[in-house]
Design a protein that fits this description.
The chain has 97 residues and is α+β, with helices and mostly antiparallel strands. The protein contains three helices and four strands; from the N terminus they run ββαβαβα. Helices cover 22% and strands 28% of the residues.
Length: 97
């Protein structure tokens, strides 16, 4: 299978991408998803095949979603569990008054 795909990035959610067949564009994407996704900015067009490697997505899952529902959503990567978030009082302890 070969699909000419347009990829859009979300202006609202960094790291969130929307893959759609180029000929269909964003017409097939449900309105609820577009509301969550926000303003779509065209990032690139790619020819997707089963042999192609994608950096963060399983190509077979992307192709399956494009064929079955007409779009694929790439969610932002999860924050690493080992990153410790310090409370504000510790972050500002040495700040001048």
């Amino acid at each position: 299978m070969k699909v000419l795909c347009s990829i859009y990035r979300s202006r609202n959610k960094p790291g969130m991408y929307l893959y759609v067949p180029r000929e269909a564009g964003l017409r097939e994407v449900p309105a609820e998803l577009m509301t969550l996704f926000g303003r779509a900015e065209h990032a690139m067009d790619l020819v997707l095949t089963e042999e192609r490697k994608l950096a963060q997505e399983d190509i077979l899952k992307v192709l399956e979603n494009l064929q079955g529902q007409g779009f694929h959503v790439q969610m932002p990567p999860q924050e690493e569990d080992y990153i410790v978030h310090l409370p504000d009082e510790l972050l500002t302890r040495n700040d001048p008054v």
